[in-house]
Amino acid sequence: MSAQKPSIPKGTRDFGPAVVARRNYIFGIIRRTFEKFGYAPLETPTLENLSVLTGKYGDEGDQLLFKVLNSGDFLKDVTADDLQNEDGKATRRVLPKVAEKGLRYDLTVPFARYVVMNRGTLTFPFKRYQIQPVWRADRPQRGRYREFYQCDADVVGTDSLLCEAEIVLMMCEVLNGLNKEAKSENQKLDYTITINHRGVLGGMYDALGESNGTETNLFTAIDKLDKIGIDGVKQELIDKGFTSTEAEKVFKLLYMPATAIPSSDQNQNARQEFLYRIQNLKKSLVVDISPSNILAETSERATRGLQELGQVVDFLTAFGFEQFDRLKFDPTLARGLSYYTGCIFEIKINNVNMGSVSGGGRYDNLTGAFGLPGVSGVGFSFGVDRLYDCLEELELFPEGAAATTRCLITNFDAETMPLLLPVLRELRAAGIPSEMYPESKKLAQQFKYADAKGIPYVLIQGPEERAAGQFKLKELRTGEEKTLTLDQVLATLA
RNA sequence: GUAGAUAUAGCUCAGCUGGUUAGAGCGUCGGAUUGUGAUUCCGAAGGUCGUGGGUUCGAGCCCCAUUAUUUACCCCA
């Protein structure tokens, strides 16, 4: 029997020590930001009941769920009739009988489930963050994995747009934090936070009047504007049942001339531009709504959406937010998840070819699916795996993030090694991560070990040093060697 | 689900029009240096060329199939 070649499922990865250290660096910045804004940690099970997961992400989402086969005789409830596939629905019939659990697909739905199950004990508004892996049975490709981490922060139980404003603040704080290590300006993550409102999108649909195309088709088509261009979107709209007149109308609404009130304050300019665009769109929507129809109404949801976007900007201004140049209003932003109802967010890194590294939005009725209607929530999520790929491409990781051990004690021979164990204890007691090389191999080998592991210092006490009651401490980076007493060693390494 | 690309040493990849014994760099191991890494010099090990068929006097190279990986589309973090 030949040994099998080991492998891991596609779309999954091992994380070696150096990678884990750098991932923890990212997690740390995100976690500290969430906590600074008053979010409390939550963890939920890897497995959820399929009844919790299915139907929350649309038909495509259900397809991407990893289902877990029941334990034991998982075929015991399946009948011969179930397996008849003349109608092509055998899979649908059999699935609930053989699998009742699945891997979580995101962190928001488990959170909603948790909120409903614990509504009696929670204090609202409830702010929680959650950093855990999720699984999607997707086709892996650049920046897309089947197992990846999400870092969610959500608030439920308040409609206040302060939450939306704070999401922008947290997004900036995390990305600014990640840019701290940048050695030059063009090494930084050049990020843009895009914001839109589902009401604005809905208002555009309303502005078309009676149409054969569906609202969802309109949203997903214009979301692709930056990818496939005006003609591409137009074609897709027509394919999906819109008339070319309607398509033209959509582009008329999206067309927003740039404002021109230049001043020396870039932050002020960006803020003005944002507000100007909102005003502009508001006018367009009103003017263009079915002028021939006497019963035409100004779309209520559009008005509400634009008003809320303005409110978010006002809160940010009052807070003293100074990065309006990072915040763009983009009426074409749609985002896939169907449960969003209010503001929606997305972060793109402009100088790295990567999908969005963060996204989120408000959902007015997420807990409704679990029997608790009328609770509003808003939240967002960072994709750590994508952020990692971006930082790596820009070489933005701090040096030494990978090293754990600070000092290696060399091992001369089996007899004297135990005599140095008290020294090892003292190093550790002083809070210096240290290790003794476990075998009495030749020194070259032990030095190579320290070098390969990125250990900065090697401590030596051979017969000569012992006779003098001293130690030799070598700093590998410089090659410098010093003969020191133990106290001096501790002082150097501390 | 749709379309393309790739598969050769532990890793990254060369390999010409199909022609003798399969190549490099890095890494690993040994030595130069029996108390010193990285750097320098010398040496060694390491291959069923993804797998299975076919064409040919002859296949790493051409053809077919298959598997794996990967990129783009759809969708998404």
Distinctive features:
single chain; 494 residues; alpha+beta; 8-stranded mixed sheet; 5-stranded mixed sheet; 18 helices; 42% helix; RNA-binding; histidine-tRNA ligase activity; EC 6.1.1.21
Folded structure, characterized:
InterPro entries: aa-tRNA-synth_II, aa-tRNA-synth_II/BPL/LPL, Anticodon-bd, Anticodon-bd_dom_sf, His-tRNA-ligase, HisRS-like_core, HisRS/HisZ, HisRS_anticodon. This protein is of the alpha+beta class and 494 residues long. The chain has 18 helices and 16 strands. Helices cover 42% and strands 16% of the residues. The protein has an 8-stranded mixed beta sheet. Helix 1 runs antiparallel to helix 7, helix 11 runs antiparallel to helix 12 and helix 12 packs antiparallel against helix 13. The longest helix is centred in the middle third of the chain and has 23 residues. The chain is globular. The two termini are 54 Å apart. The mean pLDDT is 86. It binds one RNA strand of 77 nucleotides through helix 3, strand 6, strand 11, helix 14 and helix 16.
Task: Give the SSE map.
Layout: H1 17-36, E1 40-41, E2 47-49, H2 50-53, H3 58-63, E3 67-68, H4 80-83, H5 90-98, E4 101-103, H6 108-117, E5 126-135, E6 147-156, H7 162-178, E7 191-197, H8 198-207, H9 215-223, H10 225-239, H11 244-254, H12 266-288, H13 300-319, E8 327-329, E9 343-349, E10 358-363, E11 377-383, H14 384-394, E12 407-409, H15 417-429, E13 434-436, H16 443-453, E14 457-460, H17 463-468, E15 471-475, E16 480-484, H18 486-493
Parallel strand pairs: 1-5, 7-8, 12-13, 12-14
Antiparallel strand pairs: 2-4, 3-4, 5-6, 6-11, 7-9, 9-10, 10-11, 14-15, 15-16
Helix pairs in contact: 1-7, 1-14, 7-13, 8-13, 9-10, 10-11, 11-12, 12-13
This protein binds one RNA strand of 77 nucleotides through helix 3, strand 6, strand 11, helix 14 and helix 16.
Protein name: Histidine--tRNA ligase
Subunit structure: Homodimer.
Catalytic activity: tRNA(His) + L-histidine + ATP = L-histidyl-tRNA(His) + AMP + diphosphate + H(+)
